[in-house]
Structures are given as structure tokens and as C-alpha cells.
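Quick entry, no commentary yet.
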Amino acid sequence: MNELSGAVIPQTSAGPATPAPGVRGLTAAQARIRLLTDGPNLLVPASAGGRWLRWIGPLKDPMVLLLLVAAPTYLFIGNTTDAIVAFIAVVPVAAVGWLLEARAERTLERLRQVTAPTASVWRDGLEERLPADQLVVGDVVSLREGDIVPADARVLELTQLSTDEAALTGESLPVHKAVGELVFAGTTVSSGRAVAEVGATGARTRHGAIGTLLFGVKEHTTPLQRALGRLVRVLGILAALLCALVMAIEVLRGHGFGAAVIAAVSLAIAAIPEEFALVYGLYLSLGAWRLARDKALVRRLPAVETLGSATVICTDKTGTLTEGRLAVTQLCVHMPGPEGELALAQAAVRACEPDPFDPLDRAILQYAGQRGLDPERLHREALLNDWPFDGIDKYLTHVWRTADSSTVVASKGSLEGILAHSTATENERIWAHAKNEELAANGLRVIAVANGLAKHGPTGVRESDEAVLRFAGLVAFSDPIREGVADALAECSAAGIRVIMITGDHPATAHAVAEGLGLEHQGSDGIDLIASGDELDTHDADRFERLISSTNVFARTRPEQKYRLVEALRARGEVVAMTGDGVNDAPALRAADIGIAMGQRGTDVAREAATMVLLDDNFTTIVRAVRDGRRIYDNLSRAFAYLIAFHPALLIAAFLVPLLGKPLLLLPVHLVLLELLLHPIVSLVFEADAADEDVMRRSPRPSGRSLGIAALWRPYMVGLTLAGGVVGGYLGALSLGWPVEQARALGFATILASQPLLLMVERSPHAPFWRTGLRPTRTLIAAIVAVIAVLLAMVYVAPLADLLDLEPFAPAAWLVVVLVSALTTLWSEPFKRPLG
């Protein structure tokens, strides 16, 4: 933090309009020099590297590279039509990559604009509005109620200034400021006015330090993305070796270099499961659309899949588990009775601002109105003196002239401040301290109120006006728990998801909220399951590990501690979801497997750092999103099993047939048609299927099971038998003297005919297909009709058949197609086992 300088100006009851003499800020020339030296007031500097890199990235996709090799090769050997088809096929594959890259590019853009877009700055002795990024150290700025503080600054003058620092610190209540105290960039002026001198800008502010930390946090890949990556790498290495072998064999046989390249490219396209990425993107896009209808806006598509694997949800308290608003829950007077409570309520109203911005004042006025008082009538009285908030004793005082010409004095603030500036008996003081501790232990915010009648009118001197004050009582506030949150937490428990509350509030407040939600406080090892952020700084590794493994509530946490918590949980193998709404949550949101920001109360930084935004700020929406995430995960796994069952047929046909010296069964155009068009479209049948009945009654799926041989052995084996049927039929047709185009049509027809059967088989992965695989849906019927129509068109529509190098075969051979498809796909039904 840069050293803050400037004169200290006494607080006055009049609001500051201009800085006091001698505090006129910088000259324009001084500001220009400092701007060149320190740089603009931006939280995160622009990223290095040109945007052109976004256009290159998708061109590295394996399928794109293979098609870019195949197209010119076709041109070289004179196959113009196939070359055009290969070039056209590049476009949809690359387009998907470009769209995803564009989404990622916007992640930090809002960070650079999070401070106020403009600020009131004093330059050359005159006040002017300037872009906030032009502020420099030493500038004097004016702040008014509702303003966003543009930089870290020290207060020079003020009138009843309080700022909302919840976005920065997690503290749910406004913070009252005094002369000489700091206000921080990105916080909001809740009430009052001030003049302050800038002491830090950009990344050197507290806000900017969090932004810089966020900038350095890398996003994590999801379990399924990692599994897909492993599968593609293994198959890529295998493809490279086989391609080299096939090319060498083709050249040695004298088939020519062009033919050898086409054979190798066909093999590579068959080996690399490019449609997996397309199906993955389609499922996540449709899942994101469904979640948006349920008030959960997905900003980065992998979040859709990750929701189904979440094992821990780290949630903020204010505005997430609670409503994020103050409400008066209790008026406490030493001698209970209607008259005492009425006097306390009237005094509390008179100590509030008319039409306030401060949530505490608004809660008092709302409560008073509900109890039959008329706050507007009381505030129509003449306000004679408005003594500002005292930063030392934490209280303020108002002096009013009532309708009957009486002079009434009312004060509110901390218990210590009110007792120090009012009269109270010893019994009242003892009772007040005991009651305050009792209410605070229940997680309530407490203020004290005093009032008095000035018989001789206002004096114009604060100490004299306050001499008539007498202690009136205490007002207790709560932040109500959101409706439905307790049920949502119970559902998380049934689903095997651990919920951890992380808050910047006081431990007593966190304790009360946790108790109201049914979160346990005591572990089996006897340690308290509510810990403060300071305990996370312990150097005792065993203590830290125990906190991570068994503590459910963390209070008074700092931004770097939230981040450390998330990283520690992930290091234990947990799939972590983190909810939050403030700037202080942003690094942890980015570090988590899935960051969930609040859409209504959340800051721009939190929303931009998150992978998902709750449009209704409702914790129950998270549970619905997890439920749908699990459905998407299940259906995506079934779609992948369907695709895996096809790849052995494609790979073996592309490898074995050239080795036997026979013409290619599958040309690149056939593989592109299957992998980029038919397979992704047919796979959408699974996406529309409803969730299993027990989807929220089972533990999260272990990430290691994704796409592993142990988990998908049956689809692999089905694929091998299908490959045998397809290649056997093709080679048998050639041995009978069929033309290559007819034999190829027979093999291609067998592949297509097996698709509807595999759909039904994989829709019911843990029970015979006639249980749930035959359950009709519109997408299933449409997919079956589409496959049959495409199959017939490819064989019998002459222009299409010519494009694909196919010819119609004898009608009787259709019986062979149907029998081979059925036998090679349905044999595994007796080997299915129930899940778990």
C-alpha cells in the first residue's frame, strides 16, 4: 500500500462540497507524469499475445489436421469431389473450437472495468468527472452515497460515511468510517459523503491484489475431459504407428504415394474418436440451455458435466444460505413492557436517516412500520442537528424538533459508545452487557439506542446536546435463512455431497446460521467443527488436515484462505464446487472445479470468474443443477459407450483391409459422414432421456471410472464383434466376385443398420434393453427413421451413391445385413449387471 498523505480535516455536520483549503489535489501535469510512471488504474493489465492465436488453436485439432492432409492429397490424385468434401468438413470442426475460444477470452475482460467507470476528481483546484482508469496516487476524489469507490484512498473529510465492503471482505454489514481511515476500490458508499486522497491504484489496491491472484489461477479440466484426453492420446499414438505401417505396406505394394496417404488418413480418422468432442460439446450446450431455464446460467460448458461429479460444495453464507438482508428480530428493554418498547422503537427511528441507503436503517424503519409506527411522520419533523458517526465510539446522534416544539435527542450505535455517552444505572449496564452477549451468541447483530428530551432546545455543541441522553435498550438484527435451503442441504447429504460454509462473518453469526440449517458442530474426534480463518494459517500440518477433513464452517476467512481451502480439498481428490458473490470469492471460484456466482447480488468479478451463475441467487437452484448434471453425466457416458462400440469396426476395417491387400472399405468421406454427422445426431437420443430414479440417492461417481476399460469393457467387446461382422461381410462379398462398390455398400449398410440396435442396448446399460431401452421418445423415433432413410438413400439414390462410391446390392443380402447387425450387438445382454 502506498503511503497516503494529506491534511486531516475535522468532521462537521455539514457535508463536504469541496476539499478544505490546502487540499486541492494534483495539477493536470502532475497527474500525467504519475500516470506514465504507475500506469492506468486497472485491476489486471491486458493480456499479452494477439487475438490471432484464437484462430490458430482450433486448427490444431487432430481431425482438422487430418482433413487438411486428405484434401490436397485428393486433389493431387485427381479426386476433386472428395477434396471439396474434405475441405468443407473442416469448417464445423474448427468452428466449435473458435466458439469455445471466444468464450474463454471474455473471462477477465470485466475485471479491468470493475472499478467505477468515472470518478469525481479534483485537478487544478476544480472538480471534474474523469474515467476511473486515469486516477493516480495523490488525486483527491469526492464520494457520495451509492458511488463505487474508484481506488484505495484515505478519508480527509466525511459526513456519516459508511461503505459496503461485503464484496471485498465478506462482512455482511456496512462499515462506518472515520477521518484517516481507508476506503477500498470496488466497495460501495452505503451512506454519507466524503473527500478522500488516493493512495493506491490498479493492481496495488486490495481489490486489484485479488484480481491479480485470480489472473494467475488456471482453470481445471473436468474428470471427463481428462478421460477423453487420455483416450485420444492413446488412440493418437496407436493411429500414428498403424498409419506409418499402412503407408509403408501400400507403397511397397506399388499402389502409389497418393493412395498410401489416403489409406493412412482413413486409418487415422477411424482411430481418433473426433465425434466424442462434438457429442461432448452438444450435450453440454443442451445441458446449459436446460439449466438456464432453471435459473442456472452456465458460462463455461464443462461446468455442466462437472456438476454431476461434485463431492463438496463450499458455500458463502450471506445472500446464498441467507437472504442477504437485515431484519429486526427483537427489541430489548431493561423493564419489559409496551411503553418501553414503543419508546425504544421511536428513538431508533429518529436515529435513522430519512429514506436511507444503509440496510440497518432500512430494517429499523420497516420493523417500526410493521408495529404501527409511522416513520415518515417522525422524519417530517425538523432535523436540527445531525451529529455524524463517531469512528472511535461507533455511534451517531440526531436532534429533532417535534410537532409540539419539543427537542428530542436520539442516538444509536455500539453498546460501549452509547453507554459512554448516556446515563444508565448500574443494573441497566449489567443487564445490557449480559443481553448483548446472549444475542451475539445467537448470531444476531446488536446495536444500542439512547434518547432524551432537551428542555432548553439544541445547544449547537455535541457534548451539550448529548448530555440529556438516557440508555433506552437494544435492537437485535438477523439475516434470515433462505426458504428451502435446509431441504436442499438434506438432499445434498443424501447424494453424498459435503457442504462447507465459508464466510467472512463473525464465528457467532456463522454458528447460529449453521445451527439453523442443521449443520453438525461436533466431529467424531471431538474438535469443534466451526473454525476461524486464522486457524487455517496454522503451521501444524496435522491440525490443518483435520480442519480440512472434518470442519463444516469457516468464519472470518480472508480471500487467500478461501483459495487455499479449495486447493487443499482438491488435493484430497475432491471435486469442489464453490459458491460466492463477492470479489473476495473470485480466486476460490476460479480455483474450484466449478465456481458458482450469484447473479443478483454477485459482483462482476465473481460472475466473470465463475463457471456458472445463479440467476435467482437461490441455493436450491444448485441442487437442481447438480441433479441435472448427474443426469447429463449418466446420459453422456451412455452416449460414449454407444460411440465406443462403433470405433473398433471403423479402426479394424481401416487397418486390416489394406493389410490384406484389398480396396478400402471405408473412405475418408464415409468416416467424416459417420463421425461428424450421423453419430453426433443419433447420440442426442441419450441426451433427452430422463434421470434415473436414484440419481440423487447415490454417491458421486468416481472420476476414474470415466471412459476406462473396466467401466466400458462391454461396449469394447460389442465393437469387436461388430467389426468382425462388418469386415467379414465385406471380404466375403469380394470373394464372391461382387464389385468393390457393392461390397463396400454391404459393409457400410451393416454399420448403419446396427445403430438403432446399439441405441436401445446402451440406453439400458445395467439391465436388458427391453426394460428401458425400448422406452419410446420423440428423439429415439426420429433417430431410427433418420438412420433408415440415410441408409436407403446412400444405396439407392444414384447421385449420393456415386459421391460415396457405393452401388445397390442384391435385395436378398439385406437379410444378411439385419442378421449380422442383430447378432453382433445383442449378444452381450445377459452380461449386464445392476449399477453399484
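second:
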Amino acid sequence: MTDASNQESLQLCRAVSEALRGDAMTGAWADRMKGQPGVLVSGGPSLSRNGEVLADRDFFDRFVLVATAAAAGSLRAMELKPQLVAATAPLGEAIRQWLHSMNANCVCAVEQAGADCGGIGLPAPAGLVDSLLGHLLLRHLGCDPVVLVGFDLAFIDGVAHAKGNELDLEWSAQISPVRSWDWWHAHWIAGHSRDLRAEPARSGQSVLTNRELQRELQLLEAAFAQDLTQGLQVIDATEGGVAKRNVQEEALSECMARLATNRNPKMRWAQRTRSKASAAKTVVVIREAPRVAAVLAIDPARGGTGVERSLELEFGGRSVLRRTIDRLLQSEEIEHVCLVAPENWDHRAALEGLEPNSHLHLLRVPGSAFGSGHGDIRLARAWSDSCCRGGIANLSVYDEAYSAKAALQACEEVHANAALICGADWPLIAVQESWGVRGLVQRWREAAEPLKFVCSLAAVGVGSCLLPIESVRLLAGGSAVSIGQWIEEVADELEAGGAAKLGPIVAVPQYAASVAERLIMDTPRSIQRIRRALEPLLHGSELSALAQFEALDRHAGAPPTFVPQLLTIELNTGRRGCGLASPHRFGTLQRPTMTPKRMDRILSRISETRDVVVTLAGAGDPLVHPDVAAFAAQIRRAGALSLAVRSELLSPDALEKLAEIDPDVVTVDLHATNSEEYSRMMGYDRFDFVQEAIERVIRGRRREPGAAEWIARPWVLPRIERLRDMVDRIAEFGERWRNRAGGYCVDSPPQVDPWGDPIPDAPISAEGWIYGSSHQDRSALTVLSDGRVPARNDDLLGTTSVGSVDSEELLTLFRYARQHRARTAVKRHELLSFVER
């Protein structure tokens, strides 16, 4: 510990202590809990190990529980109730409501006087961290000892935080076959960490930490040292993470049994939502309202992911297009609605008699309203169609609907200086809400600096995106990549509750941000889902966004009526890799190979919904199978929307087979950044060989004439597994492959062996508490080469088999699997709420 960090900690402690004593409400709390143990909870990955102890009724109301802002979401998910939350930034709305509901409070030390922080606002010195504020709160209350829980101060096994963090809520709606929970944790760590380094751990091994966590550790250690001089005690019950000075180590269960003996004195943790200086006004720049044109690039035949659909389809007594236009015309911020359509499109049936006027414009263009390469963008989006952001090549839902040609022509036609991007089949787009079109325009006007874009990350088809004309020109001229790329550059900077910043992403309420559904009427699956939930309610007044989401939520658990959208088919079990990344790591898996007759049974009904994407993967490498090209052709003929191949690229003829198959996506089991790692993960050293094979696939990608260089097929994504000692390498791996040809994938390490038994030394699971809510969890299914269908998609042994396609229809088996997962999720919530999977 340096003298500078020690001096900084002491200065912060003095400033915060003075602020606590000087505030009328917190000053009255001084020493009110004297003699009681205080538990300070942070959001480290190990928190879930101690949730059961904190919830033990024997210890209830016998200690003071203070949480940092990072831990608040986890405690909420665990149904634990802290007395106070310590924060140095305004809390998110969901956490505020939760605290109010149980008469808890937040002490928020913020530098900006008058900020609405959701509780008691105190003046904050620069450099204060939540954990130090929480520690000083407990000392102010008179608590001794202070017991630390969840203070890993490190990224244990490459997991950024404990389950239940508010980021889990955001990520749950963005999980897809190409972006797993592990990907989001790894991406967050890489993007928010400076100077990743290994530090000694309590276990004697090392853990990965960064500069910010190191600084927090130094501040706390200095405060703990000061406590020791005053005869006060600090107990570290984290049971993991970095080793800490000036503390005693003890298991939480033993600590509570020894200390939590007397009930807490009666205490009112009264609420106050604004600080004493709340009269101070935040200076906000107010610009002239933009002249907004809502631009709807019309493809009469296909939706955003290339599925055939009709804009004349009836929805609640009107056509889908008419209902979308009527909704946009309700907005006071939109001056013009511009339909940019092919010359030969007959608009009369879709518009139902509505003719162009001073607010509605119909612009004709030769050929398609979309530019070159948009077909490849659609194929990329087909793999994450329920995610508003992310996926292959960082493409967002707004890239599905966006056409630079259409946006430029529309803005020039009506002299607009901003384009609102949405689709022609988005009848649920939010307009009047504070996070809808009205909120986007308001954010654009109030931002301190001109913004490249303004958008909301609501459910797909509900949010929208506003582009100033300068950004439209940048995208049209190729100076910028995509809207999705812009979103990725800023979205990771927003912490949970960070939406108070006047940045380009508008805050979205929880009910709109956590929905993992495609609410665009462009596939039979989404059309049926929306119609069943909303059509009975549409014959009357317009529904609010909240009422829409409540109705959709009531129908979310309905049995599926279509085959799975994300279908993985195993052709064989043979592969060449035999290391730690091999599915055969627990023993050889041998099954009969796929047959054309069995494949026909699997594919018999996938054309009904037209949005099914098929991955050839499983225990074996499909490129080892001699008839893989014939099976790929069979899948195409059956009506699959897109085809992916997962391979090691170790077969001598792998590239020739790939060229014959012509897949849309290729994912490659690389799992390494150097030859040594590759030998460990794959069994022998072919690292240079596989890297060159990937490069050859990338160099051989096909691009439409006139399309940008980065838009080409197939999309290529190398894969790496999140093992315990590979965490620091994932950042290097992602940096190399992030922008090459689609991105990269991070695989989850197995938590159970093929027989369903937990693996004792498995790395911590990265899944959030919202298990089972992602689009992938509900829409994915795997068929093994012998025809069996496991309920768990990672069950390559087939121990959870719900039947076989040889004797039952795929849809029936999909329903069985969904029922099995639902029961498992309920049991996990009821019985294993506080236990790490």
C-alpha cells in the first residue's frame, strides 16, 4: 500500500464521516446500532455462495445489512432485504422501487449537487467508491465488527459480477447463439478493465484483477488499518477473491453463529428522494427541435431477416403497414412519414385507402429500397433476431430496417435534418412514451454535445433510432460501419442505473428492456405471438406500451406451435480434436451417423415458420462426415432461413467441403491464442494450420457488387472456451477476431458431466438469475445423430432425452423439452436460490 493511497483513503473517510454527521437524517443514526455486527455486501462473483447464510431465519434481524449498488440487484434476486444501499451514482428505477417497497433506503454520495439519487443525497468527495461509503456507514451506525461478503475484488473464473446484477437484466435480452452469457462477461471485463493483472488470492493461487479493483482494495485496506488503531474489527467472509490486509478471515456461517445473537434496535430508515441542495438546477443545453422524417424503407415481400411476409396482413382490423403509419402520425415530433418503395409496388391495399399528403410521402426508387449487401445483413441478423443489439458483426435491429439510400432521399425530399429509423412492419413502436420517439427527440435536444445517434434498447420492434442528417451521410459514404457498431461503442459504458447521463442511449423501463421477443410482424412465429396476445385488446382505444408488454407476458408460457427456431443437428460424433475443449473430454461418445430419412423427419415442418436457422454441430465435427454437402442441400431445400457449420477445420478437405456447402455462418473451434494453448485445448499442435484455414475462409468470402468490404458471406466467428486460467487470454482473443469477419464466440465450460452430476471444480457459471428467459433458452433444440432429442441443449450424451425423431414429431419433442426446462427452472428458483450451479 502506498503512502498516497493511504492518505487518499483517510481524506475520503474524514469527508464522508463529516457529511454523515452533518446531514439531519443520517446524523440521527449515529451509534444507533452500536454493538451489532454489520455485514457489507459487494457484488463479487462469490456472493451466491453466502446467500443462503444471509437468508437464514436464525440470524434474521440480528445484523445490519448494507449493500453496494453493484450488489443490490443480486440481493433483490435472492429476495434478501438490506437496510441500506451505499452508492456513488444514481440508482436504477427498479432498485429504487424495490428499496421503497420494503422501507429500506439508499445513501448516495454524488458530486453533482441536487441530483435525484433515489434516497439520501450527500456531497461526495472525488474518488469515493461504493464499498468505502458502505463501510463508513456501518461504522457511523456503530456496528462492530464489519463482515465483508462478496468482496472478491477480482474476476473469479472470468465472471464480472454475482448473479442478479442489473447488467444481467440487460444481457438476458441479448443472449443468442453467437453471444452467450460468457461472451458478455468476457466482453465487459475486457472493455472496463485497465491493466489486467494476476494477484494473490486467499486460496494461495492467483486471480485476475484490474487497476480499478486494485485502487478499491488499497482504499479499503487503509480504512481497515485505521479501524485497527481504534480497536475495531473487520472480518473477511468472502471465501474467495484477493487476499486483504488488516482483516481476519472466517467463514460467514461461523461468523454469524458467533456474532448474530441480539436483535437490532428498532429503526426507521425513512426515505428522502432528493438531497438538501435539490434546488440547484442542472444546466441543460436546449437545441432547436430537429425536423424529423420517419423513414420506412419498403420491401413488399420480406421482413428484416429475409422471411417472406405481407404488409397487407390484418392486425386488429387494419393492415400492419397502416397501423405502423397511424402510430407514427400520432407523434408530435415527427413532421413527415416517408415510405421509400420500389417503382412497381402497388401501395393501395397495404395503405387501405390512405393517400400521400403533406405528412405522408410515397417516394419511388428503381429496384430495391435497400442497398447492396443488405441480404447478408439480414442473414447475420437471423441468428439474433430477438436481440435489439449485438450478434454477428455488431449488427442491430436498426440495421435490419435502415437503408442509407432511402434515408438520404427522404430527408432531401422533405428537407428534414433527422431520420427516424424503424420498419414498415413495426406496429408496436413506442411513440408517446418517455423512451419512445418523444424521448429520443428530447435527448437529442438536451445532450451537451451533438450526438451521432439517439436510440432506445427496448424490445425488438418497439424501440426506435434517430439519426441526424450528418450521420446518415456518414453511413451512406462508408465513413461509418453500422448503427450497431455505434451502439456497441457506447452501450458498454453505461453501468446499471447509468441512464441518467445525457448520452445517445435513452433509459428504458425494466418491462421494456428485459423482453427477449421479436415484436415485429414479419415471421409466422412472431405474428402469431403478437396476434394472440394483443388482437383481443385492440378493438377500442390504443394500448399503452405497459399494457402491451403485460399482455405479451401473460402469453409467454404458451406451448410452442412451431418447431424450434434455433435448431442444432448432429451428423456424426467423430472429430480430430481430443483436448480439454473436446465434447469427448469425459469419455468417447459413439452414435450412429445421421441418415437422409431421419433428416427428412427432422426437417418436415421447418418451412411452416420460415425463420428456422440450422447449425450443423454436436459431439462431432460435421465436416468429417462424407455426405455433409448432401445434408446441407437437404436443409436448404426444406426451407431453412440460414445455415451454420461449426468445425475444427482440421480435416484435410475441410475447406473444399465448406465451399461446396456454402454456409451463411462458419464458427471455428480455435480456443487458443498460441500453439501451447491450442495443444492443451485440442490435443495436438495444429494452431498455425487452423489459423491459416480461417484466414483462407475470410479471404474467400463473397461480396455483393457495391457492398462494403465488411459485408460478405460466410460470416466467420472463431470460438474460445472460458476456462479458469484462460480469462486473461479471452481479451486478447477478442481483440484479434472482433472485427475480422463477424466477431467471436465464448463457450461456457461444462457445469455438469454427461451423466448430469455437478463437476466439483468447474469454473463459476456465468448465467444470470434470469435463467430460461433468453430467446435462445426458449427457442433452441438439439437433435443427436441417432435421432434422440435431449431436453438440455448441452447434453451431448443424451441423458435428458425426451424422445426420438424416429418415433415422434419434432414439434412434440420441442414441447416436451420446453416443459422439462420449465420444471428445472422452477426447481432451481425454489430449491437452489442461493447455490451456485
